[in-house]
Amino acid sequence: MKPVNAIAYANIALVKYWGKACVNKNIPQTGSLSLTLNAFYTKTTITLSSKDRFVLNGIEQYSDRLNKVISFLSLVRPKGLFCEVVSENFVPTESGLASSASGFAALACAVDKFFKLKLSRQSLSKLACFGSGSASRSIFPGLVLMNSDGYSRKIINTLDLSVVVVECGIGKKVINSRSAMSITSLTSPYHNAWISNHFIDLKSAKQAIVTNDFDKLGKITERSALRMHANLMAADPGLWYFKPLSLKIMSHARKLRNEGLVGYFTLDAGPHVKVICESKNSNIWKVELEKIPDIIQITVSKLGPGAYCEYGN
Ligand code: DP6
What we know:
alpha+beta; Ribosomal Protein S5, domain 2; Alpha-Beta Plaits; globular; binds ligand DP6
C-alpha cells in the first residue's frame, strides 16, 4: 500500500455546536453552520507501519492524542494492520482555531483512499465526525451545514464572505472543548435553553442565506457565540476561554460596526476573535483591528476548499 496524503481546511462555526447527544459515537446534540477557511489547514500522510504511530508537527505523540487517532483508525481498518500518521498543522494546535476539525477531516480523507473505502462525501463527513464533530464540516468547501446526525453538506449561496482571524494569545487552550462540553451539559442550568434556542438560530440562519441577508446572518452569528459562552460561564465550575484582549476586540468590533463598518464577531473554545465580513471590507477590518495593541497576529481568510487527497494509491 502506497502512502496517501490528504489536506483539509479549518472551519469556523457561525451557528455553534456545543453538547453531545451520544458521547461514545460523538453525535452532536444540534446541527451547526460553518465557513471553511483557506488560511488554516492540516496535511496528513498515512503509511503502513509495524505499530501505530502519530507524529504531529514533527513530534511523536502518546497518550490522549495517539489514542484518539488509534480509535479513529480502528473504525475503518482491516484487523492486524498498523499505521503511521504524520500530520502538519498550519493552524495553531488546540488553541481554539479548529485544528481538530482540519486534523480529523484530513485523516478521514486519507484513510478513505488508503483503505479503498470509496465513501461518498457525505459518508466521509460522518466518518470525520467520529474524530471531532466540527471535522464533519471541513470535508466540504465554503458555507457548510452539519445536521445533528453528524452528516454535513455544502450550502449553495452567493454571499462573498471572508473571516478576519485575530489571534489573542499563544499556547494550548485552558480546557479542551470535549471536556468543557461535557461539564457544561451536565452542570449548566442554561444548557437546555441553549439547545432549544439553537434550533431557532439555525432555522433563521438558513433563511438569511436563502435571502442573501448578511446582516441577519451576522447577528445570529454573534448571538450564537455569546450564548454558547454564557452557557459555559454558567457551568459549575464556570468556564471561559476569552481573555481581556478578546473582550477588547469584541467591543471594538461593535464600535466599528456602529460607525458603519459591517462585520460580526464570533469566538470558539479559545481566546481568538474572528470577524465575519463581506470580502470587500476584509482589509479595512484588518487595518482597523491592527490598531489594537498586543494582538499576536491577524489573518484575513477567504473561504476554502473541501478536504482532498494530494497523492495516494
Ligand atoms: C466551539 O468539534 O472540537 O468550535 O466533537 O468533541 O471534537 P469534539 O468537539 P469540537 O467542538 C467544536 C466546538 C466549537 C463550536 C463549533 O465548531 O461548532
